[in-house]
Write a structure and sequence with these properties.
This protein is mostly helical. It has helices spanning 2-7, 10-24, 32-41, 56-68, 94-102, 108-116; strands spanning 72-78, 84-90. The protein starts with a helix and ends with a helix. The model has no long low-confidence stretch (mean pLDDT 89).
């Protein structure tokens, strides 16, 4: 899993970190909207230039890429309005994802925030 996480681009890693946060809080499977809101809430915790914004469409694309790489599992879930939507959860251990990303200076403050919550 380490190689897969390290091979993801920075935005995908940021999205993966948001999913890991939600997973440690017991909130998965999670929809793209919740991942987007979680990621936006932590932009200040990332030590890098902004990604050009955290738009939901970019998050949906990143979630798909992470699933294709085997880092996320998807399952069909229902939204509150009854629509079928993909729900995402980590394919592996959230602790491992956090450990790999904590070695990256730009994500260390966010990882520390997840571990301390």
């Amino acid at each position: 899993m380490r190689d897969q996480v390290e091979s993801a681009d920075a935005f995908e890693q940021f999205v993966l970190l948001a999913v890991a946060e939600l997973e440690t809080a017991g909130e998965t499977p999670v929809h793209s909207y919740h991942v987007t809101q979680t990621a936006k809430a932590h932009l200040a915790d990332v030590d890098r230039q902004p990604f050009g914004g955290v738009e939901r469409q970019k998050v949906i694309s990143a979630l798909g890429q992470l699933a294709d790489k085997g880092l996320l599992r998807t399952e069909q879930t229902q939204s509150p309005t009854g629509k079928g939507r993909p729900g995402y959860e980590l394919a592996g251990d959230p602790e491992e994802v956090l450990e790999v990303l904590s070695a990256t200076d730009e994500f260390e403050p966010y990882v520390d925030a997840v571990w301390s919550s």
